[in-house]
Amino acid sequence: MLEIKNLHARIADTGVEIIRGLNLTVKAGEVAAIMGPNGSGKSTLSYILAGREDYEVTEGDVLYNGESVLEMDPAERAAAGIFLAFQYPLEIPGVATMEFLKVALNAQRKARGEEPLKVPELLKRVKEAAGSLDIEMGMLKRPLNVGFSGGEKKRAEILQMKLLQPKLCVLDETDSGLDIDALKIVAEGVNALRSPDRAMVVITHYQRLLEYIVPDTVHVLYRGQVVRSGDKTLASELEANGYAAIVEEAA
Amino acid sequence: MNMHATILRTPAEAALIEAFAERCSDLPGNESVVIRRDEAMEVLKQGLPTRRVESWHYTDMRRLLSSVPTYDAHGHAEVLAPVLDGSVVLPMLVGAASGAAPALEGVTFRPVRDKLADGSLAQALVPQGDDDAIGALNAAFVRDGWFVDIADGVMVERPIELQNVQGGGQAHVRLPVRVGNGVKATIVERQTGAGAGFVTSVANLVVGDDSDVLYVIVQEQPETATHLGQFNAWIGKNAKLTLFVMNAGGKLVRQEVRVVAKGEGSDFQLRGVNLLAGDTHTDLTMVLDHTVPHTGSRELVRNVVTGKARGVFQGRINVHQIAQKTDAKMACNTLLLSDDAEFSTKPELEIFADDVACGHGATVTEIDRNHLFYLMARGIDEKTARGLLVEAFVASVIEELEDETIVEALEARLHQWFAEHG
């Protein structure tokens, strides 16, 4: 479903290269964990997949269902089924969360040639999804992410993911800032979305999240490259020994 | 008014003088009112203010007011559904209070023509200084309006809407509002209509001690109308006044806000939203006086300017020498959406006390790229995402009002404006 081939990318403003020849393949139904020390390029990778303009791809390609996404803007990628759960969801004063959900959902439906959802149907879906994530409806009347706690923001990201039903989910450090109860709720939400026709890229610094979202494959990112791939046991190995051994190997 | 000699009158100035000559005998008022009208007219005969008058520097009335419609309204106006559901509506149609005074517990309403006829409003017709062109125009021509008197201790159950609907001619109204002590009330001043009207409207609000008043001005004149509004308020001890101003229409608009924090512990909040489009000119000018110790104020004005529209915000805060512990903050933020759009901001602090916390800031901003990316990453196309963020820029001012039904009603009007101009 996702094929990243020899990807090189740099920060557009400064020209600093962050991704340096990255290769990664994630199949439909697969949950791939991306691990790595700070500064290895994990978040940059997530932004490039979502289409953020601040990064410039200088070489290589990103294929989604066999087609390059590099010429697509973020909205087109989202409509095609790519979803990024942000590490730091943005607070947007003045945009009511519910209104945002409606506009986003219907924008994607429109891009796919589907009819817009009627308000009662939308409310029903939001209520169901919110209930399973322990999100109170009152929270959704507030402006988007404004005044939400760290945990509420992360749950709101998963709520959006549940509603939008993307095909490729990229979760950037979804565990950061969560206590153990919130982590369990979020992980349950993510696990409920695992399906044979959906792929997930779970970016995390710690193994903790992977106890709750058990990956099929684990990839270690270092200096903008995948330096080691394996199954879920690789995550435990990293937890026990740290990144040092792998990093030395790569160097 | 500026006293410079104007030998050649502009068509607008000539039309005003002619209208007064024709109409003055028909306008309501006892002898003392007639004297005030004549005095005001003498001031007007000196000419409309130009850019050489400091307080009118950005709004040169002599140049901008190209014509004035005849006094007689051939137009037609009808009572509209109120901005807030369940409001008591006091209509003014084509410049005249319409219908019987409604019943509302603890509140007395009277048409202003009665208070002109008995002379009780005469003193209030004196303009506030040489540059008070709006006060003078209104004093000369005022025909009617509604007087609102809220008794001490009344929690007014329903919002009161003062609804001024012009019909394409001239409409000059006055809105004296007396709020007693310990009152809670919401008042909406609605300025709207159809056609190229010429409107002056002067509201005088006295807020008693320990009262809490929300006053909302919704100005939605058509893009052919001239609207000159003035809001004067005096705030008593430990009283709170929140003034919300939304300018979303008009060809030539000036809304003046003159507030005196005269009771210790009083608080004034101004929230302003200017939505400016087309080939129009809109001026929001505030003068706030902190005259006693321990008073606070905060002003937040947000502007969205598109097309060839020009906007002005002048905010002047005077902190008098005895007004120690004044806490005043003023901010004006503007989003310019087209190359031809213009906005001028002039914040001024004049502080004579030495133990105060006062500040002001003015910015011209662009849409936040991170916000744009976040919305687009959810599948919202760039144009729609930008629209949402522009609307959000001003909606966040509205959301600071505490009452949810009021927030929703104002956001609906905002939404409508963006639907028409976005």
Automatic annotation (TrEMBL), chain A:
<dbReference type="InterPro" id="IPR003593">
    <property type="entry name" value="AAA+_ATPase"/>
</dbReference>
<keyword id="KW-0067">ATP-binding</keyword>
<feature type="domain" description="ABC transporter">
    <location>
        <begin position="2"/>
        <end position="248"/>
    </location>
</feature>
<comment type="similarity">
    <text>Belongs to the ABC transporter superfamily. Ycf16 family.</text>
</comment>
<dbReference type="GO" id="GO:0005524">
    <property type="term" value="F:ATP binding"/>
</dbReference>
<dbReference type="InterPro" id="IPR003439">
    <property type="entry name" value="ABC_transporter-like_ATP-bd"/>
</dbReference>
<dbReference type="Pfam" id="PF00005">
    <property type="entry name" value="ABC_tran"/>
</dbReference>
<keyword id="KW-0547">Nucleotide-binding</keyword>
<dbReference type="GO" id="GO:0016887">
    <property type="term" value="F:ATP hydrolysis activity"/>
</dbReference>
<dbReference type="InterPro" id="IPR027417">
    <property type="entry name" value="P-loop_NTPase"/>
</dbReference>
<protein>
    <submittedName>
        <fullName>Fe-S cluster assembly ATPase SufC</fullName>
    </submittedName>
</protein>
<dbReference type="InterPro" id="IPR010230">
    <property type="entry name" value="FeS-cluster_ATPase_SufC"/>
</dbReference>
From TrEMBL, chain B:
<dbReference type="InterPro" id="IPR055346">
    <property type="entry name" value="Fe-S_cluster_assembly_SufBD"/>
</dbReference>
<dbReference type="Pfam" id="PF01458">
    <property type="entry name" value="SUFBD_core"/>
</dbReference>
<dbReference type="InterPro" id="IPR037284">
    <property type="entry name" value="SUF_FeS_clus_asmbl_SufBD_sf"/>
</dbReference>
<dbReference type="GO" id="GO:0016226">
    <property type="term" value="P:iron-sulfur cluster assembly"/>
</dbReference>
<dbReference type="InterPro" id="IPR000825">
    <property type="entry name" value="SUF_FeS_clus_asmbl_SufBD_core"/>
</dbReference>
<protein>
    <submittedName>
        <fullName>Fe-S cluster assembly protein SufD</fullName>
    </submittedName>
</protein>
<feature type="domain" description="SUF system FeS cluster assembly SufBD core">
    <location>
        <begin position="169"/>
        <end position="393"/>
    </location>
</feature>
<dbReference type="InterPro" id="IPR011542">
    <property type="entry name" value="SUF_FeS_clus_asmbl_SufD"/>
</dbReference>
